[in-house]
Amino acid sequence: MTRRFTALAALAVVCAGVELVAGRGMSPGVAWDVLNGGGDATERHILFQLRFPRLLVALGAGACLAVAGLVLQSALRNPLAGPEVTGVTPGAVLGAVTATALGLAGWDSPLAVVLAACAGGCAGAALLWLLAGRGSGDAAQTAVHGVLVSAVLGGLTAMVLLVEPGELGSVVQWLVGTTEGRVWQHWHLLWPWALVWGIAAWLLSGPLTLLRCGDDIALAAGLSARRARTLALLCAVALTAGAVAAVGALGFVGLLVPHLAVALFGADLRTSLPGAALVGGVVVCGADAAAQLSSRLLATALDSGRLTLPVGALTACLGAALLLVVVRRRPTRTF
């Protein structure tokens, strides 16, 4: 385990270094010069005020989504239970889109956007619990209700965009997911939230490990399955809301990264939860670096200086392809 954590940490450092120099206006030589105290004011501003907060936000959001996904899959015993099943991701997007359309928030006011997205995410979770929370706590029912809630919230987002079509350009990044334009204020809002709820999720690692084995085994061990599942869903909701508020709806990160974390670190969530956080950060950071490099290549090929590929589009495409490959190779796999 120590070797795997060390290898992932080294990979995270490599991805971070690539992301710092992947975008426009910063070569490896210039970045190294700035880190050593050189460079002009513009280069220092690009590196320290734009690249570093973008890097940290990508790492933090990836960690939040990965931990939330692993918590959900363990609590619901459903291998396809990503953060979207709670209704938080579409709810947070709806909150950000609505606030932007009403003129209450915008990309120039990160705090207002984060608050609107968190409010929307909590509203999506509350709607789910109103529908399924008073039932028997059945995992399958919770997952089904989550899919329905997500569909409803996605429809409401589409309606807002139809009412305010002029806001489409400013909110489309929320629908896809991006780290573009992230500044230190986004990071200062994200890391305390992620730290508190990440620790809370790790403290639930024991009950979650029992829930992975089934409610009967959990009850035999003296665990209240319904109470543990409710606390776990609360952690997943909070982590997802924080990530979506920071970067928008990054597809497939919370769905596929937990499977990779369990494969690397085992089913004991005391180790796989920190592992999932590290893997999630590496995946989003690496995807963001790849998206920036692809944007530069496409802009050069198409002679378009403003072409930008959002990281959410890359994670969605690669995640969907990977999921299709896994399903076709192991069609009978169960949790």
Automatic annotation (TrEMBL):
<feature type="transmembrane region" description="Helical">
    <location>
        <begin position="143"/>
        <end position="163"/>
    </location>
</feature>
<feature type="transmembrane region" description="Helical">
    <location>
        <begin position="307"/>
        <end position="327"/>
    </location>
</feature>
<feature type="transmembrane region" description="Helical">
    <location>
        <begin position="231"/>
        <end position="257"/>
    </location>
</feature>
<keyword id="KW-0472">Membrane</keyword>
<feature type="transmembrane region" description="Helical">
    <location>
        <begin position="55"/>
        <end position="73"/>
    </location>
</feature>
<keyword id="KW-1003">Cell membrane</keyword>
<keyword id="KW-0812">Transmembrane</keyword>
<dbReference type="InterPro" id="IPR000522">
    <property type="entry name" value="ABC_transptr_permease_BtuC"/>
</dbReference>
<feature type="transmembrane region" description="Helical">
    <location>
        <begin position="111"/>
        <end position="131"/>
    </location>
</feature>
<keyword id="KW-1133">Transmembrane helix</keyword>
<dbReference type="Pfam" id="PF01032">
    <property type="entry name" value="FecCD"/>
</dbReference>
<dbReference type="InterPro" id="IPR037294">
    <property type="entry name" value="ABC_BtuC-like"/>
</dbReference>
<keyword id="KW-0813">Transport</keyword>
<comment type="similarity">
    <text>Belongs to the binding-protein-dependent transport system permease family. FecCD subfamily.</text>
</comment>
<feature type="transmembrane region" description="Helical">
    <location>
        <begin position="85"/>
        <end position="105"/>
    </location>
</feature>
<feature type="transmembrane region" description="Helical">
    <location>
        <begin position="190"/>
        <end position="211"/>
    </location>
</feature>
<protein>
    <submittedName>
        <fullName>Iron ABC transporter permease</fullName>
    </submittedName>
</protein>
